[in-house]
Here is the input.
Amino acid sequence: MKPTRPSLVIIGHGSSSSSEAEEAVLAHAETLRLSNRFGSVLTHFVTRGAKIPELPEGEVFLLPFFMSGGFFVNIKIPDLFNLEGLELHEETRTLYQCEALGLDPELSDILQSMALEICRDMSKPASEVEIVLVAHGSSKSSASSEAAELQVRALREKRRFGSVSNAYLEESPHIASVVETLLEEGRNVVCLGLFAADGPHAVDDVPEEINRAIEKCRSEMGGSVHYAGVVGTRPEVVRLIQDSISRRARNLKK
Here is the structure.
């Protein structure tokens, strides 16, 4: 008998050195299991080298828990699951790959909420706060910067903040440089992490870049800087995952 509810596989990057890098995927998966919206909710981490999980029958949606497109989303995941055109049709099951989480048009709503929480803690109106969306970046691929620019444009369109800019760990404009310039101008800065989880980049590298900026302009600093953490760990992400599956399912019927 064909299952009445679809199943879901949340696919993350994974890490051999940091368990925190996988905690967000596991936590969101457990929340989705408890919702009883899906027949099964499985997880898979592409850098672990493990075999893909045994998949249930019926419709199975694959959700790339990545903040951008690029190699893993466009090549690795389709190869792992033998997809053609982001789909696989078998006798007992059908697989559908969804869009990467970082490309979700509603992710900017969560980013805005993160920033507004810091604004309230600072007792500053949002219009007097400068937002810096920080991401990995890469000199080899534009995928990370394209995803960041997508969310920056969405935040700017909301017209809530003094300014919204992007900065990266591994390409220009670099985080330390952008934050340093804003601090020297006496601005109040909130950095938002466009990362899927609390891995080493988000937990260690980003704060290090921010501290470098603070040290460089400490004697002249008239503003302040706060790091709001990463978007991928937020509980609101569960709703985005559900909405992503719904959009993919609706597109199948067109």
Q: What stands out?
A: Residues 107-230 form a domain with the Rossmann fold fold (CATH 3.40.50.1400). The chain has seven helices and nine strands. The two ends are 25 Å apart (CA to CA). The first helix runs from residue 20 to 35.
